[in-house]
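In the previous chapter we treated chains in isolation. Here, by contrast, the input contains two separate entities that must be folded as one system, with a combined length of 378 residues.
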Amino acid sequence: MKISQIKSDFAKFTSSSYTIVAGCSRFGASIASIQSEKGAEVVVVDNDPEKFRNLSVGFSGFKILGDPTDIDILIKAGIEKASLVIAATNDDNANIMISQISSKIYSVPKVVARVYDSSKEIIYQGFSVKLIYPTQLSTDAFNQVLDEVKEDKKI
Amino acid sequence: MKIVIVGGWKKVDFLAKSLLSKGHEVTMIHDDEGYCKVLSRNHNAAVISGDGSMPHILEDANIEQADIVIALTPVDADNLVICQLAKKVYGVKKAFATVGNPKNVEVFKKLGINSVISSTHIVSGIIEQMSSFNEILSAIPIEEGKIVILELEVKENYDVCGKTIAKLGISENAIIGCILRKTGTIIPNGKTKIQQDDKLIILSPPHIQNDLIQLLIGRGEHV
């Protein structure tokens, strides 16, 4: 990707971006913190107030205490104007519901969901939701480390 | 018919009994192993212990052969996933779900699951109806409250007592569908005369209910 392309994407993204992070898991909190530090408007939703502790000191967005699968809570979080929704709860079913509501009912341009059980992936068919598989990512990363170790041994 | 029921406590026990007595084949899935044993004892039907929103558990329950799946778990998101898996992946023709949050009736419809019952909705609807008028014997909201069925017992001092239906002057939007009388059930027409102790079964949209009841009862002793 050219530098100019990256810069323009970045500018486009942060200047008009309104992100909702549903579920303040460590993953969700991490994404929320990064987005917030980049300058995006970020709203984090979680049922458990303790979870908000996962957010970094640099987080300057909003926190909403409530059930992120509840459509009224999502409206309160501003889903009607969101450009990005991340379904980051620890529950696959909740993530499915949140991402479907975001994508199908509110046509949020970019919706990302964390999926633990890949056997449920098929439910997402027909919905424009990007999926992240933590297990697969960890496995890939692990394989990469293994390859590096093998390379080191060769040298 | 082959029916798979997922989750629920008293509901699934009762529902299974009812469906089995009608000759249907029922398979139950429940994530509480202890309750699975209870269900297994109570009913002559297969019971699977596990999370019904997991595809392999649904497969254990032979979901591919099911005609109907009923999701009764207390978590709406789980019920959504169960129904969507059943329909999308396993081709089950009909999927029913109960939801705790009444808003999810609409949400589920938009996400492809049409048969959704909100027990909260029905219960609060009935309570509201019953508490607002002493005269109504019972009230049932239909179709998420768009239409209400009322049962009203005609007392001697009511305006409506002794009048024919044609002369009542009730709104066009309401209809007295049926009259329960000691002598039997009557489907009334314009000439039917309403008598004391008649139980009127009335259908109407909720917003004209107040006026309708006032009309039937009259100024009288209505509180």
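The first strand of chain A starts at residue 18 and ends at 22. The first helix of chain A runs from residue 3 to 15. Compare these points with the single-chain example from earlier in the chapter.
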